[in-house]
Amino acid sequence: MAFLRKISPFCLNGASISNTSCTSVVLLRKQSSAGIIVIGEEILKGQVADTNSHFIARHLFDRGIKVKRISVIGDEEDEIAKEVLLFSKNFSYVITTGGIGPTHDDVTFSAIAKAFGEEVKPHPELVKLCADFFKTEDLNSPAMKLAHIPESAKLLYGIDQSTGKRTLYPNISVHNVYIFPGIPILMQKLFLAVQEELFKEGNERIHVKNLYLSCTEVDFAEHLNHVVSKYPSVTFGSYPKLFDRFYKVHVTIQSVRKEECEKAYNDLLALIPREFIVNFDTAPTQNSYEKILNFGVQKKKNHVQNAVESIEQFCEIYRPAEMCVVFNGDPESVVLTHLIHGCLRRNSESANLNGVTFMEKPYTSELEQFIQETQARYNMKLERFSGPLSNTLNAFIDVHEHFKAVFVGCVADENSDLLQLLTYAEKNHPTIQWVNPLKDWTKTDVWDFIDSLSLPYSTFNNSKK
Questions:
Q1: Which domains does the chain have, with CATH numbers?
Q2: Which of 265, 409, 242, 240 is nearest to 333 (CA)?
Q3: In 3D, which of 13, 11, 14, 12 has the Cα closest to residue 281?
Q4: Which of 89, 87, 29, 83 is nearest to 59 (CA)?
Q5: 402-421, pLDDT tens digit by residue?
Q6: Which residues of 348-386 are buried (b: 16+ CB within 10 A; e: fewer)?
Q7: How far apart are CA 137 and CA 410, in angstroms?
Q8: Mind telling me which Gene3D superfamilies this protein's record contains (predicted)?
Q9: At what angle do helices 184-198 and 52-62 cross, to 10 degrees?
């Protein structure tokens, strides 16, 4: 059951909103709307999970732009052209993802050109970019497909948030259609780099408050209905979240009047029993080092302080480019990645995290999606090696002889595949320091850390062992 009045038609994601004790300010564009078109047969066949529309919708909401429709369509030029033209006529912004690249099924540019009755032509600036990157000047080569765009297209470069430099490849737009790559990490980097420029006009402020509750909607429905009737000009939303460790319901309160938003929030807060209120951190990667230390000190967790000290010793000796974390999506690697991220960012906000995944067999789509989300969350440069552990480890070492320290998260009460990896690595590759900062942790310690710091995790591992 969900209670809703005058609110965006999609469920909020925790990473984009403030925690229980804060008021966030969203920029609301008057009468701005958006349609998202996700392009790719692999989405329709269930071979790849679509995370792009979720990311885009969340960020458009933050900017006050109402997403009115999301469409998933295959690699058919005529169908894409038809959908793009329809969306362009009905929405302020049209965002497309996927279908740009060198292969035969990358037809987004030609489809958008067809939608507006244009031709696809090589753009001089893009030709130079492709020539430099792909080392070819042949306009008919597959690599040059990225340089052939609709004739009226505009280029917009942004600033890559991870490097502080101009993006290597621009966003390309035709009229009100903005074209993004389909690979999630590339799409997210480009979107974040250009969003300020794309959506900067005519904003009106709206204030948002959030509550996270450990009860069901039935338990507080009467209280919510009372506050809803008391504040007719305030927007309320209630969103259940199933099978989540942190909370069961997320409640949003929105108004263009800050005082009214605060009053509605406080009235509802006063009615709900305190034991139902969850102190959920929606941005655990912000000020992560301080939060980690506070948790260790306040809870008297010596194993947390020991792990931090172990990681910091290597941060003092080696550069970030000489260190790497093994990340395979399990709770231990989530904790270890967060610890290393905090220690690196303590010394430099621009420090990038290197990661490696060793896969003996393909991951489930759910776990694969979580790994991609984590990669984006920590701005991690993640490489994958598939096959038996000994083979993948040797291949990894051959490619990355420059790594001086590799961090592996193995707890004391579990004989995991990573523990086998660590044992094999220490024996066969002694020139690299193999570090296990979680060696005196238990499985319970791992989940306690995740729960206390609100760290995103894969629901594939949604139980304590």
A1: 31-198 (3.40.980.10), 204-276 (3.30.70.2860), 288-461 (3.40.50.620)
A2: 409
A3: 14
A4: 29
A5: 889 999 998 876 656 677 77
A6: eeebebbbbbbeeeebeeebbbbbbbbbbbbbbebeebe
A7: 50
A8: HUPs, MoaB/Mog-like domain
A9: 20
